[in-house]
């Protein structure tokens, strides 16, 4: 499915885009994703789009200008591919473990209950300046790593009120020329499990969802008191109504358990979406995407249950997002009663490639949290999940409602919007270390990265970055575990 970043998801068109005349930016002699790895290409950008893409010819002499960031001396050392996307990342909860303001909030048990407790305590200390400081670090590090699109969750509840949202909207405005940000008003806390049946919480969320600059509404049905099914359905129904009324994308953090005796709520949510007439016509101006995140319970599904779920979803713009860093940290651990058990345990995170290949539904993968009790390990780098061989580029963008010329395919051509990441060779004297294909980048991502957003260099961490608007590379943890839109995932 193809979605739009604009209010009305019209089909992509270059008819009104002027890509003639001198280019704004040129890369010469680079490898290009999904082009033969024995060919080099010259790529030119103008007005935020690719204006030319030609196979590279070696001239007798090549004049190098400031606009030509790659000439003979760089030929064959760089690889251009689609930029990365965070389809699911929490802006307000990042870097709590390393920030001095929260240094006393130490992890001891490492379980979900403790993570909720520590985060609740942290939230009582939140101030807008602190939220902006940590959020800015996450955004800047993400841009440096090649991220040009993100859905950022900011919590709104009776404790933090609008602090997280205020910070998120301020950061969105500050970085509008360097990254596309969707701000998601997120109800991490229960919506209806209160003495007033959620009246105050719902009023607060409705005001937040109507704020200018908000793109998405999200909720967490499983946190309702005692996991009560009726309360979860009330949470879900409120989220759907709010998203439809405010014309927002919808994002459920749902089914975060591995209990075979606890029914999945995804199927009932799908039924509610159909019953409440969520727009299914991609040409409808109210058309918005739907994401189901986590969904650990679905890893227990049989093939029959998956096929039945696909049948129910038919027509709805649904995507699934796996969050392995958090899912594997929280899920699939042995209980105290079976600590001696050595038999195979449930994986605990979505099999994203199965969802794509076997069941023909869209799915992607995301970082979720960085540096907090839900996910104490890992960095902002989507490629740090490469061992899962799953999708963090085109499919991730499609999931959050981004319009693509060809959904989920890597087919770089003239007229495409110019959102790219260029991987350099950290040691050009060793040409065998040059990345030439998606597989090379997935298996061994280079730290030498140039991020292009709307045809402009917004970050450059290469050694030759002087004079090209470079950004200092911050210290972040070594890559752990994702991939670009693995072409094998189709």
From TrEMBL:
Gene Ontology molecular functions: hydrolase activity, acting on carbon-nitrogen (but not peptide) bonds, in cyclic amidines
InterPro entries linked to this entry: Metal_Hydrolase (IPR032466), Metallo-hydrolase_Enzymes (IPR052349)
Name this protein carries in UniProt: Putative cytosine deaminase protein
Organism: Marssonina brunnea f. sp. multigermtubi (strain MB_m1) (Marssonina leaf spot fungus)
Upper lineage: Eukaryota, Fungi, Dikarya, Ascomycota, Pezizomycotina
